[in-house]
């Protein structure tokens, strides 16, 4: 008998009881069980065959004995005062169904530890957008336009990260689904048709980003040699990414941990070096200060002069710079179904996301703005010729101007690692997006097949085939293909952020409707007002992202298609699903029908079990590692 607050439309705030009992007869409806209600009691009967909702519960004395044995083992083994996450993962693996054992389908494995999730949060989606893509924004918008636009984007994206984190921490999933995907959240809290469109929009975005990063990586290698054809490098990069994603999730987590570590160390080093050059610590002892903010100026005025020119520089910087931020929040939440201690790790990663924004993006762009002018001849020439990798990186150009000769090759290696890592992360996200849609009936069922290692292998194969769009780079220049891909994926990301905000607003209404706010494990400041702010800003940017192409001298058909092709595709998916399912009379779920209770008891019980196993860190080293990871 477990007491929880009621999910009852006629008694939305009063205390009540939900009695959860297992139906040992094995019968149950496809929806997960029968519900019997009276005025004060909602009695839910869950069947063990309905989605394995009770896989995390210990149903007999033997399981209780095993749990206590693991708690004792953890306490004796954890001399450093921290939790043994391998024991948590062992518990999940033991309770996961097996095809060999009971003929039930395999599940995702919770093989990601805290250090994996935290590093993915800090550097998982940082690719070429920050290290290379900022050169175009700097040249077009000037140093102030670049810096201010990145501050604005950071202010917009942080509430989105918090909103997704709140929803995922409340119901993170049990390994049988990718509960953290935005499409799953939209389907559950808003509408199945909007969730369908969101899911395919994200998949489309993810595979394009895989292609974009592989395209960029092939160009990065050309900084060293052009003897090897581009197609060979693209094949190598794609094959490595696919092999990592065909491996168990702990292999993906470990690879991303080290990839992200390299990226973080690289960016930290570049920021420190820029600070040294700012004060004249380079070989030529030239003290830069904010010289380039005065000459040639803080704004490039690429469209017009005066105050309007300043505004258009900032606005263009937001549109161009958003590519560097795309899918950062989603990637963190996508790991929720496959990480140990889900609520704690996702909440911690969501809180720390702000430091990623401040340190890497805001300080990173400030560093760029002081070491190279927007009209630097090397920068202008590199952009005009479409030079790859470090050849067009503003960091490298600034370092070369300071008289430092060796670092560009090292930085180019870091850029290559960043592109490879981002492609790996986006491939992971695309497979989980397909898996979610297959499990909810929004994609062919075969895409939901999972092998005994917890890998959705069919989804990986399909994502690989779609990401072969990268071979377009063979017949076109790297810069052109990368620009097409980045523009299209940026708008897809905007649409995904808007849908995530809408899902959060509906989720929050349902939480208050059912009186569950006090049971939310992770809450953030300023909600729902900050989410409304993000939703409005992103909506405006999505509609006006191609404003410059309507100026006659800037009109190009290819730019117009890249700016707006995603919008009609999304509308066709959404409205087409409405017509196909004959649900056009209901555009969103009524608050009384939004399900915020299924799976809640199981995740709360699992969280309590994990807390029983946790011991506070004792030594300084353990306290430091606990705070860091």
From TrEMBL:
Residues 116-589 form the Amino acid permease/ SLC12A domain. Its main location: membrane. It is a multi-pass membrane protein. InterPro entries: AA-permease/SLC12A_dom, Amino_acid_permease_CS, Amino_acid_permease_fungi, APC_YAT. Residues 18-79 are annotated as: Disordered. GO terms for cellular component: membrane. Keywords: Amino-acid transport, Membrane, Transmembrane, Transmembrane helix, Transport. It comes from the Eukaryota. Residues 42-53 have a biased composition (Polar residues). The chain crosses the membrane at residues 117-135, 147-171, 232-252, 264-282, 353-374, 410-429, 450-472, 484-507, 528-551, 557-576. Residues 56-72 have a biased composition (Basic and acidic residues). GO terms for molecular function: amino acid transmembrane transporter activity. It is found in: Membrane. It holds the Pfam family AA_permease. Belongs to the amino acid-polyamine-organocation (APC) superfamily. YAT (TC 2.A.3.10) family. This is Proline permease PUT4. It comes from Saccharomyces paradoxus (Yeast).
